[in-house]
Specification:
The protein is mostly helical. It has 5 helices and 2 strands, in the order ββααααα. Strand 1 and strand 2 form a beta hairpin.
Amino acid sequence: MRKLLEACPCCGGSLGITGLACTNCDVEIKGRFRTCDFCRLTDEQSTFLRLFVQRRGNLSEMEKALGISYPTVRNKLEEIIRALEVQEQVAPAPPPSKRDMVLQQVASGQLSAESALELLSGLTKEDS
């Protein structure tokens, strides 16, 4: 299976997931979703992490398996830790759209379905 693109092929900016589809019934869900913390690791970092878990975090075993020195193993692990920490500091999620706010009001019982339909039909594409 192909790995998700990590950056825009045109400008290099970060990419966001805006849609999901069921492979069974073709239902499509649109919205703003974030990738998992590990999705942005490089292939090399993912492979290292997989081996690290298989060896139950034993750095000496990693040294033997990879044929590299203990300090190099530690440096690679530190690199992954830094990459995961940076991802935690990424900009917060955007505020909910007007559409989302109307749907939240319906879900909480603050707004009737009929009123919500009126409000939603008056929204422009930029509002949703």
